[in-house]
Amino acid sequence: MAEDVNQVKSLRERRKRITGLIRKELDTIRKDKVSIIILFIVPVICISVIGTGKVPFSNVTATIWIIDEDHTERSQQFVNCFYNVSGAVVYTNDNANESWVTEDLANKSITTRALDAYIILQPGFQNDLLTNGTTNLSIYIDSIDLIKQIDANAIILEAIANYQIQNGVFERDLFYFPEFKPEQDFSLLYIAAPLMVGILLFATINLTCSQAIVGDIPLKRVLTTPTFRFEVIIAKTITYSIMSMFQILVVLLLLEYGFNLVASSTFFDLFVMLWLVSLSGITLGILFSSISKTRLQASYLFLFSFLIMVVIVYDVRPPAVLPFMPIELARVGYANLADRGMTLAEIWPTMLSLIGFNLVILAVTILYFSKKKEFV
Q: Residue 133: left if φ>0, alpha if ψ -120 to 50, beta else—which one?
């Protein structure tokens, strides 16, 4: 009997110990802000962003010129099919207010942001359809921006499909093979560079900077000196900015001299834009490091934020959020500078967004770190 009583007491004591340990762990997690962010805030952000978005590439937009040299009823019906496609911004020479739409101007504008694709309806478009049952379409698409290529192709395919349905025209009756301009021998690196360069620079420096504070063992002793906390943030930002400059130099020199990928813009313009992209990775990484208690937490924050950005930029693409995503700004900026030959002044919205992003993140980091108590 006494033995049974002892066993019951032992079980009660064990239950108390386990309960005490559970309370301790729950209290630790409750006080760990980074764990709360990882467990609750990150899933909420992901679901909210995807929930407010649309099916990938369903929200397409493209500027398309149609140069009608046939001027017949069938050619006008073809043009009208483009007007009825959602997201298509259509200009045609048949419109009296758009008489400036010419083939010469289209050839000059296809490599700029003003035009994504243009179509030429050759003389005899209607006659060929009625007499021979088939006709050719001359379609030219901007080769620089991969995202816009997809958008323009989607709109063109939808408009042509609508025309075929309305007029009983079979797919084989409209023969076309889109050509891409500017015409050149594209390498895989040329196509991938706008998507890849910005991501590489942003992700590598962001991951490195996410360990800048949480992994700095001597920092606690430094903060016992008259050093101000904002000075620590400024110093680390400048230090990693200098490192990023050398990184950008290596990347640009490798592209130009290693793979003959010569930028159409000046070296200075491209360097400054990419430096601002790297700076966004630096400021965001230092913020992650300042709010983390362990290196693992900082790595988790980097991983989750990077995955969210990739999903937003290359999958969901919500128009309200894209202008604030560094890797999207890097893609657009690189394409406009390196491939289109534009200047920093011409891409000022991209530059302004990058500068604004860096200033906001830097201010938040300084404000948080100045109130952080772990190093006191």
A: left
Rounded average pLDDT per 10-residue block, the chain, 376 residues: 61 73 68 65 65 60 91 90 90 87 90 90 85 82 86 89 78 73 71 88 91 76 68 88 93 90 91 96 93 85 88 81 91 92 93 96 91 62
Residue 145: inside a domain, yes or no?
yes
Comparing C-alpha atoms, which of 308, 326, 301, 303 is closest to residue 50? Answer: 308
Query: b/e for 15-28, b at 16 or more Cβ within 10 A?
Result: eeeeeeeeeeeeee
Judge if pTM exceeds 0.90. no
Paired residues of 135 in beta bridges: 174
Residues 6+ apart with CB under 8 A from 288: 206, 209, 210, 298, 301, 302, 305
The CATH number of the domain holding residue 93 is 3.40.1710.10
Domain boundary among 181, 215, 236: 181
Token couple for 83: 């007007």
Distances (CA, A) of 114 to 1, 110, 117, 119: 92, 7, 10, 15
* Burial readout 114-123 (b: 16 or more C-beta within 10 A, e: otherwise): ebbbbbbbee
CB 303 within 8 A of CB 230: no
Give the Cα separation of 79 and 266 in Å (integer). Answer: 39
